[in-house]
Amino acid sequence: MSMIRDLRAAVRPSLRKSSAPYSSYDPTRDPSASSAVVDCAVYRDGRRLESSACLTPHEAMLRVREEGGFAWIGLHEPTEAEFAGIAAEFGLHPLAVEDAVHAHQRPKLERYDDTLFTVFKTIHYVEHAELTATSEVVETGEVMCFTGRDFVITVRHGGKGSLRALRHGLQKDAELLAKGPSAVLHAIADHVVDGYIAVASAVQDDIDEVEIDVFSAPAKGSPRGSDAGRIYQLKREVLEFKRAVSPLLRPMQLLSERPMRLIDPDIQKYFRDVADHLARVQEEVIGFDELLNSILQANLAQATVAQNEDMRKITSWAAIIAVPTAVCGIYGMNFDHMPELQWKYGYPAVLTGIAVVCFAIHRTLKRNGWL
Question: 54: burial class by Cβ within 10 Å (0-12, 13-18, 19+)?
Fold first, then answer.
């Protein structure tokens, strides 16, 4: 343990253990002041000890060591100073602590001595009245989970994805919660993946809407190919979704297949269900990406076809206009001896001839689909 503490001091001096157990939990501070700790409780035999409601993380762990059970500490966007005391108290690895404080991590599962460090990307669907080229479809957040033998520390980043409802729901299942910290880790993983399923369903509706718009007749005044911006924006949001889902599949498979000392064997069976749901969501997201590629290509092809149609129409009218232009150009030359110059009906005859030729060209082009 002394070697680990020396390494922690070398890598991150700010995490050194101070003389006071928790500089961030001064009992004399104003209770109304903001704190990164959103909930801290001790659980024993699947029940939350109500007398632990006002404990600090340090006090909660002292009680766990004296009476048994485990502590569940929830934090929201802690600073380095706020997290330093907790990291020192629980012996958290400095690299994991740095990831938890600064966020923007890839979903992963890492083991540091007797602690599992798991990173989840949370996805929240952003409601919008109409999908535009600048619409935000998904909003991401992060949940980091430190799982030990007698503690769980959750660190949440982002305005969405609160774990309060999850905690209350889990507290109603004493049999599952009695399995210890691994039951909390499974509940968080299941909660995150359930969120993926809900978002995937909403994104599917947006893709269906775009697909219908692309393959239906364009609105009056709206040119073909004008949906490219919406498709590209939706594709970018799906890519963000994919970055949250795909890297998490391997950690869930490890939790469900590989025996781990910190994971209860009975809970490991539940991770298989989470891994199956996650695999299904991953297939859907990959399908979304491929479908959007096809829709985008179809949209660009429609734009190309529309441009070709416009060019054919322009060419057709240019051919029709070429007839009177040629005749008028010929008769505009200044020569004394030109046929029909002195003929009484020459002017109306030329106009009639021009009209007949132009009408014949128009009919031919229209019959061939150029007009």
Answer: exposed
Token code pair at residue 141 = 């957040």
Residue pair 116/147 in contact (Cβ under 8 Å)? The answer is yes
Please check whether residue 76 is in contact with residue 36, taking contact to mean a CB–CB distance below 8 angstroms. yes
C-alpha–C-alpha distance, residues 45 and 297, integer Å = 58
- Predicted TM-score of the model (pTM): 0.75
The maximal CA–CA distance of the chain, rounded, in angstroms, is 124
Contact 8, 1 (CB under 8 A): no
Ramachandran class of 116: left when φ > 0, alpha when ψ lies in -120 to 50, beta otherwise:
beta
Which amino acid, one-letter code, is at 189? Answer: A
- What 8-state DSSP symbol labels residue 214? H
Say which residue the tokens 């309060």 belong to: 164
pLDDT in tens for each of the 371 residues of the chain?
Answer: 344 444 344 444 333 333 333 333 343 333 344 468 888 889 998 898 876 566 788 888 888 888 889 999 999 999 888 898 899 989 899 999 999 998 888 999 999 988 999 999 999 998 888 888 788 888 899 999 999 999 999 999 987 778 888 999 988 888 889 899 999 999 999 999 999 999 999 999 999 988 888 887 666 555 565 678 888 889 999 999 999 999 999 999 999 888 888 888 889 889 999 999 999 999 999 999 999 999 888 888 877 877 788 888 888 888 888 888 888 887 777 766 677 667 777 778 888 888 888 888 888 888 887 87
Q: What residues does 188 pair with on adjacent strands?
A: none
